[in-house]
Structures are given as C-alpha cells and as structure tokens.
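User: Some background: our group keeps a shared notebook of sequences we're curious about, and every so often someone picks one and asks for a predicted structure to add to the entry. Today it's my turn. The entry only has the sequence so far, pasted here. Could you supply the structure so I can complete it?
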Amino acid sequence: VTFPDGAKTYTLKGKVASAIGNGTIYTLSTTPSSGWTNVTGQTTGNTVTISNAGFSMNSMTVKGAALAVSVATTPSAQSIVAGGQGIVFANYQFDASQSGEDVRFASIPLVYDNGNSALAANPNQLSSCQLWDGSVALNQGSNVVNPASTATSSTPTLTQTFTFDSQFVVPKGAVKTLSLKCNVSSTADANSQFQWGILNGASISVTGVTSSNDVAETVTTGSGQVMTNASGSLVVSTDSSSPSYALAAAGSTGNIAGVYKFRATNEAVNLNRIGLKLTNAASSSASDLVQVSIWDGAMQVGTAVFTGANTVATSTFNSAVVLPKDSDKMLTIKVDLAMVGTSEAGTQGALIAVDVNSADTTGTQGTGSSSGNTVNASGSTAVAGVRMFKSLPTFASDTLPTNGVGDGRLMRFKVTANSAGQVGFNQFKFTLATSTITGITNVNLFGYTDASYSTGISGFTSGQIATANVTPGSISGSSYPITITPASIVSVPAGSTYYFELRGTVAGVQTGSSVSTTLLGDSSYPSLATLMGTSAAVVSASGNLVWTPNATSTSVAASNDWTNGYGVVGLPSSGMIQTRSN
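Assistant: Of course. Here's the predicted structure to add to the notebook entry:
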C-alpha cells in the first residue's frame, strides 16, 4: 500500500453479515507503531518509524430498518368551509430516526372515521384527496382519491388506500410529515364533521432501501382532528391602536384617520374592496377631503375619493389583501385634507371621521380563498376623527429651576404655530396651588419672541400680556383660578415659537414653601351654534384656552373663528403643570 506525500483521509468499509443481531456494536482499532510493518520511504528506501500508539475509531451500532407511523396533533380541530379547496385534514408522521437505513413504501391505508355521529359527513362529500410532501403531491392523475363510499352507523369507518406515483423514501434518522388535503363539496351540510386518521392494524409494505429487507413498521392508532363545516365570515372593528381625537392642519396629507381590524373566520379571505363612509356628515363633507388612502403596514393598497354630496366611497384594490384565517389583520386609513381659506373647499373646525362601510353588499367585500365564495363584511367601526383647522398651535413646557419660587416666576411654556398659518389667543386660564406661603399678588403673563425671554412680543409693553384688572389680589390655597385676558389678541406667526412666563409676587416664602401652577386645557369641544364661534361664545361655553386658526385673515374677537383648547397638542385636558418650591 502506497501512501502519497501529504495529509490524506482514508475510509475503512465493510459488509455487515445478515446474521448480526440488532444493537451489535463494531469498534475498529489499530496500532501503527507495532502493527504496521515494513514501512519504507518510496524514494530513499529508508525505514520509517511510526510513533503513533494504538487508537480506536468511532463505534458503529448495527440497527435494522424501522419506521414508526402516527397522526400529528396538527392541524388542530377547526371549522372549514363548504366548497373549500385543498383543505388540510390531517398530517401523518413517518419516523425513521431509529432506523439503520432508509426505508420506502408505495402505498398506505388511511381511515375516514364517521365516528357514528349524527353530525358526521359522508366521505363522498370529499374529492381530490392527495398526500403532500411539502409542495409535492405524491398521488396524482389516476392515483388521486375520490371517496365514493359512504360510512354508516353499522360501518362507521372507511379504509381508503392511497397509492403513490413512485416509492416514497424516508431517510434514516429523519422524520417526514405528509399532509392529507381534500376538496370539500359546496353542498356539504352545515355543521357536518370530517375526520381522517389511521389504525394500528394498517398494513404498509415497507422495505429497507439498502438491504431490501421487509420492515415491521409500528403504527400508532390516531383518529385525527374533527373538522366542522361552517360558513366563512368577515368582521371589521376599530383596533385598539386607532388614534384618539386629534387636530390637523388644512392641506396636510397622511393624517391617520383610524386603524381597522379585520378578522376572517373559518377560511382566509382575499379582501378585494373596502367601503368607507363619512360618519360626521353634520360637521364634515366630501369637500373637506382630497383623498383617502388605505395602508397595509408600510404598503399602500388602495385609494378612495368622496365626491359631490356623497358620504360613502369605495376603494377597489388592484391586488387583493390577504386576511388570514382566524386571526386579525390591521389596515390603516389616512386622509389628505383640503385647504381652508378664501375660495378654498375645506371647512374650518370640520370633524372628519372615516369609518368602514359594511352596511350593504356595495361596501367591504372579499373572496374566500378556499371556497371562492363572496364574503361580505359585517361589524362596524367608530373612530375618534381628525378636526381640521387652517393652522394650529403646539404647546410645550419650558424649563425653570424647581427651587427658588420666591423670585415670583410661576410657569414657563412655549407655543409654536403650524407652518400653515398664524394662530391667535384671547384667553389663558391657570390655577395656583400654594403651600406654606402668605400669598401671591400681581399675577401677570409675559410673552417673548426668543428663548432667552428677553424680547417682548410686539404690541405689549415689555411683553406684558395681562393688564392690571386681571391681578387677583392675594392668592393662597389649594386651587385658585387665574384668567388672563390679553389687552389685544396674541398672534404667533406661522412656523414661529413664542415663549410665555407667568409671574407674581410671592410673599411669606420659607423652607418647604411651594407653588404648583397649572395651565388649563379643555376636556371637550365647545358647544356652539356652528363649528366655530366668537371669542365670547367660546368663553361662555366654558373654554379655558381660547384661540383662533385665522381662517381667512387675522381674526378679531367678534369673528366667528374661535375655539377652545380641546385636542391641542402638548396641552392635556387636565392641564400642563409646573411646580416650584423653596
């Protein structure tokens, strides 16, 4: 034997005698240092000394061919639909993990179990039954099974042999799963039940691929899961992630109107179209919307346009949205808003709520992916809506030291006007809660155009917003109301941020003294004769923050263009709170 120069790998093979018992272990070993003789260099002829001592190779255990057959626990018992195509009724597991060689077989007898139940469907309501190895059908053409027999109370089971197009091989050490799929008759009775399994007496002709020996397979009886015939359905509802009431600038795009939950039951549904409706017809119309878009995650799947006086619209998808069986699918609806202003179509203060229309067959509809049946949606949605203004403010708290309240600075906050236009203010309301101080006097609000609080707002002396008649006198207690009515309307230019500071004279400050100041928001939209009102009307409607989006020009107090602080970003209905102590 000549070993070429360099490291090489050599394999030792042998034939196991047929009489060797199952479980016999072979372990081969060698001792090169003493067992290998006459080792010489091929070129020099010199004797070569091998120093390696004895070593053993891996143990090899003799195992005969083996196969265990059982019914898997999946799919679970569930509802299916009449007319369903390619329904998975059972999965069969073929376990050769304990086999010493690959095994093969050409057919298998499976059992349809009537269960002797009044609800049991006859197997002849099934057709085109096939066993599948993943995406490969093992019995095609003339081997496809169409059960023609009926099961009766006296013969509750039907054995049906599935013959493969070619031998099916299960590799040793592996577990293979085959799925039984059938088509269900469109005339199958409602609530009828189907069940496929296998019996331990089933005879499967299994042989070893290498030895050709017959294999005594082990079959575990399994009835399979009960599949109950039911109708497919589709229900739509408002998802919990749908946004709460919000304000939006006219002309803005991609505002989320709502998130809608679709649940297909008993079969997956291909959603072909979605019907939409404007819920608040009294406070919004088609003219307030440019377009509605429907989104599946980050993918836009459809659009809709409300036209004329219509409060309903339909979006038909180019590609169906797949709604999985017995699970939830969320779709998001976004709105592009019209402009508000002179000769513009949008309505100042319009509350735009777009809900899913499932009231009739012209609304939301899909196709059952198994049955092909038309499925009309039921259920309803109720979203909070988006209220449209030409422009809108955003509030944010600004920083003050938490201690040192004796300096009289009670609160700082800032207001940013949307880039769509300027916003105006004609009232701010606060409450003061004090602890261990004598009182607070001379409370005034100051406004500035810079973050350093040094340049007062034009039109106000040193930025002082309030006048002397709003000074409430001595304040002490748990919740003292302060109303700031500016000497003139405070206007924040489009895209700009103004800075505000509430100040007073704080008396009797000692260690542990504190003042909590709350800038009040509003908990509901003002009750007005129209969508917007005069400044006085909003105040009469218990408005705390009174502001205007300036629909056509700079509004005055008497303009019918004022509202309150409900929904203003950064200003909770419970108010913005800042506490300082000593």
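Suggested note for the entry: The chain is about 0% helix and 40% strand. The longest strand covers residues 157-170.
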